[in-house]
Each structure stands twice: as C-alpha cells, then as structure tokens.
Write a structure and sequence with these properties.
149 residues, alpha+beta, Thrombin, subunit H
C-alpha cells in the first residue's frame, strides 16, 4: 500500500494507493467519495486529478485525466510522499502539462477522422457511379444503334 493524500471538495483525507496504472488507480480511503466526482490525489510533488468511476465501501476506482508516472509515484520515500504544508494546502496547484495541448490534439484527431471519412465517402461514390455507368452503357449503346446513331 502506498500512502497518499486525497482531496474531495475542500476536505483532505489520508488514502492508500492499492493499485496504479498509467491511467487509473485503486485507492482505499476511509472517507466516502461520491461516484462520478472529481478528486485530487497527492503523493509528494505529484498531483493527480481524477474522476471516481466506481466505489465499493472504502475502495474507489479513479480514472486520471493525464498519464501517470507510475514508477515515480511508487518509488517516493514515505517522508517526501506525505509532504503537504499548511502554506501550500490552500493554494491550487497547477498541472505541469497544459490542458490546451490535450484539447488541441483531440481537435486534430477529429479533423483527421473527418477527412478520412470524407475520402472514403468520395471513393465509394466514384465507385458506385462507375458501376452504374458500366451497367447502363450496354443498353444505351443498343438504343443508340437502333436509332441509327
């Protein structure tokens, strides 16, 4: 178990990280945390903002907004891990990675998806048009020959 601090709203509680992956955590906290809520988990200098995706008694499953440095979080020693000074407790801590960069990549991904769907739709339309033209070419040539053209 890895000790950490959990903030839900304005209150802090001790917590233990039971399992951690690059995008989520299993946390034990004696204080109840509502499902669907946003919490902040701190271990040393690491600040993890996550959403509560499920809860079972005192255990909660968290999905992190950002990728987690798993090895760094696990390897902190106990004294450095629980540092939460009174001066820093009231001030919001800023993320190292800007959210705008994440949103920018999402917009870029959506644009690429839109272009891909457009190219596929255009290819499909051209293929169908070509098949219809070939299907109607024989009867039209017979009509043209009958009319003397």
């Amino acid at each position: 178990m890895i000790p950490a601090r959990l903030r839900n709203g304005a209150s802090w509680a001790d917590a233990c990280i039971l399992n951690i992956s690059s995008r989520g955590l299993l946390v034990h906290s004696p204080r109840g945390v509502p499902q669907g809520g946003i919490v902040e988990l701190r271990r040393g200098e690491h600040v993890i903002v996550a959403q509560v995706v499920w809860r079972d008694g005192t255990r909660v499953g968290l999905r992190a907004d950002d990728r987690l440095p798993v090895d760094e979080i696990i390897s902190l020693d106990g004294a450095a891990a629980l540092q939460l000074t009174a001066a820093g407790a009231g001030q919001p801590e800023r993320r190292k990675k800007q959210r705008a960069a994440t949103m920018d990549s999402r917009l870029r991904g959506r644009a690429m998806e839109f272009v891909s769907v457009g190219v596929i739709a255009a290819s499909l339309a051209i293929t169908i048009w070509s098949m219809v033209e070939q299907a109607l070419a024989r009867p039209m040539s017979a009509v043209a020959a009958a009319l003397g053209g």
